[in-house]
Amino acid sequence: MRGRFWDNDPVAAGDERYVARHPDAVRADIRSWPTGRLLSVAARVVEGRFHEFLAARGLTHAGLIALHHAAEGRLPQRELAALCRVTDQTMSRTVEHLRRSGYVVKETDARDRRRTLIEVTAAGLRVLAEARRQERDSDGLFGELEDYAVFREQLIRLISAI
């Protein structure tokens, strides 16, 4: 019995580095790939590039999500955890990492000493803006996209439909 097409395929098996090391081999048969494989490989390649971008700035995916939500203004850590859909304990670790990196400050709420308030620093706003630019630039994370906004809307529709 033949195995699945991806059993011996380093790209489909999860090696996004294969794409970078063998661009001609990938280009040679990419049009024959099923759409699911295209999405899977694209996701791994973009995630790898994004991880490198974030790591170079002392950020994680979770930290970037927290910065995105906290950029709207100072808010309680528990509310930030709810917005990011993580536990209070997970958010506590994420906020501490962001604080050590200089991207947020945290303080005790003067009106309720049990609450911790989180506020993004100027450095946090700069790194968030840089990440957003990197996402949209043609030489950024997604490479050449004809229309970033349309691509984004298509992804939203796809995920929402599932």
Which SSEs are present, and which pair or pack?
Elements: H1 16-21, H2 23-29, H3 35-55, H4 61-70, E1 75-76, H5 77-84, H6 88-100, E2 104-108, E3 116-120, H7 122-136, H8 148-161
Antiparallel strand pairs: 1-3, 2-3
Helix pairs in contact: 4-5, 5-6
Describe the structure.
α4 packs across α5 and α5 crosses α6 (about 90-100). Helices cover about 60% and strands about 5% of the residues. It has helices spanning about 15-20, 25-30, 35-55, 60-70, 75-85, 90-100, 120-135, 150-160, and strands spanning about 75, 105-110, 115-120. It has a 3-stranded antiparallel beta sheet with strand order 1-3-2. It is built from 8 helices and 3 strands. The relative contact order is 0.09.
Distance between the termini: 32 Å
Shape: elongated
Strand residue content: 5-15%
How many domains, in number, for the residues? 2
Q: What's the count of strands?
A: 3
The CATH H-level homologous superfamily of the largest domain: Winged helix-like DNA-binding domain superfamily/Winged helix DNA-binding domain
Named CATH architecture of the largest domain: Orthogonal Bundle
